[in-house]
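Hello again, I could really use a second opinion on something today. I owe you a coffee for this, so here goes:
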Amino acid sequence: MAAHGHFHWNELLTGDVERAKKFYGETIGWSFLPLPMETGDIYWVARVGDTPVAGLFPTDRAGFEDVPERWMSYIAVDDVDARVKKAIAAGAKLMRPIFDVKGVGRIAILTEPGGAGIGWITPVQ
């Protein structure tokens, strides 16, 4: 687990998971483990051997029509709720309500004052 302030996770937001799996599988050598999400969609965990290294988040569904294909990074924080309050006071915007992912952690998706998207996560211990 990454320490507070360190990058913790990266995921590719993609409308074509199969294309992304093929590309990264052939070029990097990643294998992929499917994880069902509460929505019924599949989140794909990219692995090197048995080690998780990244995720593929499917955007080919309702509510994600305008989301461009891109990599999203997540920074580990000690208390996502308290840190988001500070971020909003400093000019950030919360893109969606803070949410929990069972077995993963509590997550906030922000737009920082310069416009860049960033995820903050308080990982489960």
